[in-house]
Specification:
mainly beta, four-stranded antiparallel beta sheet, 281 residues, 2 domains
Length: 281
Amino acid sequence: MFRFCHSERSRGISRISLRKIIPQQRETSLDMTTRVSLAFLAAILASIAAAQESPTPTSPASPEESPALSIPPEGSTTSPAAPEQTPSVSPARSVRISFVPPPLEGTISLGIYDKNGKLVRVLHQEAKLNEFAIGADALVTQWDGKNDDEEDLPAGKYRARGYLVGSLKIEDLGQSSGLAIENDAARNVKVRLVPNPLRNDRRSIVDIGVGFDSDGSYLKTNDDLPLVTVSEMPNLIRAGITRKSENAVDIWQDDGTTVRQFRISNLDQMMAFDCGEFELK
């Protein structure tokens, strides 16, 4: 890969096809997103109530499906208390992570960071809400204490945080000159996000860039957390990004024979969230 960026995506993580990314108009006011949040949480509580009233006996839930205890709105992390564990996951190393998703429709990318703020595991990439277990009042996932290379990480404090990415508009602008990458592309650009009303925070700014692997290209944060697929063009050798407007960027990618340009709009349809700090034993 050339000097602007290079990042390998973790194994076993779901991808969304570019064909499934459909431009769509949506309201972006905080009143609308708050209503979406309340509706989502109401659906969670309704599903739990139905499960509790069901007369049909059910088998004990697996560690990944265990309901969460009540947690504060910001989310929390706890160690699993279930006595039965699957053989592939060490009970002492498994960490249960609960969080309330931001009130915005879209997909979730979630990473694990060490005490120095370095990304050590891409836990979820472009995941849909239904790919998470539903806890008492939050979504639930598990981390096995390993990095992206399936190596055990040392004991210590870690943090889980990520982004909910709304409906972005991705346009294929066709072939372009290789000079565009050389002259216009940058390592990353700054994007202003939608404030997360659950955190009462200000409108934060994040640095994003473009990464690629054998499957294609994707937008990523400056610390290499993948956010959304740009294309499924294989065998890329370099890629670059430049700002088009406040809420849009242009992407160039080169497979050695063809340079292709893409435009990604509605980048302000993203919200950051933090699951909090926890300790790995």
